[in-house]
Design brief:
Blueprint: E1 3-4, E2 10-11, H1 14-22, H2 26-36, E3 38-41, H3 47-55, E4 63-68, H4 69-72, E5 75-76, E6 78-82, H5 88-112, H6 122-131, E7 140-144, E8 149-153, E9 164-169, E10 177-179, E11 182-187, E12 194-198, E13 205-209, E14 212-217, E15 220-230, E16 233-236, E17 238-244
Antiparallel strand pairs: 1-2, 3-13, 4-6, 5-8, 6-7, 7-17, 8-15, 9-13, 9-17, 10-16, 11-12, 11-15, 14-15
Helix pairs in contact: 1-5
Amino acid sequence: MTALTKAGTLAKAPSSAEARVEACDWRAVVADLDASGCAVIANLLQPDECAAIAQLYGADRNFRSHVHMARHGFGRGEYKYFKYPLPDLIGAFRTALYPHLAVIANGWNERMGIAVRYPATHAEYIRQCHEAGQVRPTPLLLQYGAGDYNCLHQDVYGDLLFPLQAVTLLSEPGRDFTGGEFVLTEQRPRMQSRVEVVPLRQGDAVVFAVNNRPVRGSRGDYRVNMRHGVSRLRSGRRHTLGLIFHDAR
């Protein structure tokens, strides 16, 4: 079981996160990402873990900033960026997911002719971010109520950008909320945008392209532009955990 410590952080052994991430079918994840720019990892978090993370939203001591989307034209709803040190469970999954995603990201950059390569460990990548002046943590907790939505966007916070992101649904569709589907759009050259609606259950994570991804065409690979958002919530309340792997300026 997962519980909140007295300090308001999540107590969970990192080895549990590592074991769950290692148990994922990474061949299927790679295949789905190459096919559509996103992949679902089912049951990454357990229901009690989802509830414990969602409960953190009310404790401001866990966060560095609070954003109301409507004030910035981002949509409706709100989110909070965690501060360092991250809650144990969240930091453990960020660290455990990164090495697998770095392999995919490096392969994508090679296909797109991008010279950047990502180090094997997340600690080394965060060190690079901090040396570049990107020192603010980017994991975030999002909260939506009835009528809220998130406009299509890309999460770019500085010159150093990790091209994959993971979002985990903490609420249960149909029980806690209705509507509020996770949505991706893909813009290929000289074509109309393609829309992908990603069905998620509580505890499922979706890994997706932050800005660009390679697509194989008749003349080789080319880049397509990706954006993501959340459709309008019809009823209830929806919480999600966003894991962004680069830090912000």
